[in-house]
Amino acid sequence: MQQFEPLPGTQSKSRSHKRVRRVLGIDPGLASTGFGVVDFKDGRYRMVSYGVIETTAHAPHDERLLALYNRLCAIIEEFKPHEAAMEKLYFSRNTSSALAVAEARGVITLCMVQHAVVLDEYTPNQIKKAVTGTASADKSLVEKYVKLLLGLESEPKPDHAADALAGALTHLHYAAV
pLDDT tens for residues 97-106? Predict the structure, then answer.
């Protein structure tokens, strides 16, 4: 049987030459900002790192924003993500916390732009649906699916970190290469 070469540009030379997509997921907040770094290659996810950036409640507001900025810059420099995903702000009854989250989101956005990391945003319902298949999932179900999708031994904790990993998975689900 005769073998035909693929047309130029229609197939990569080999599967091993495909680029790894590294996504930084972010669950924004002033007191606690969750982050999660996920790699994707050949249809497989791999958790690289996750955690929470915490700021001291009694510190001056501007210092808390600066601390968030500096720690996030260090995370970007350490893990060198290609893309990022952040949960969209939704309005709640507590406007003072919504304003603090909005300011944290501004700092996060600035940090991404300065490091040339493309940032996309997703609603909480988009994240729940992409990870679990339903927009009505609770935090516990999201954590269970994040564990399953990333092949982790246990659910990632705290919940801000799990939400950030879910955001990274959502981006890989929705964003085309």
Answer: 788 889 999 9
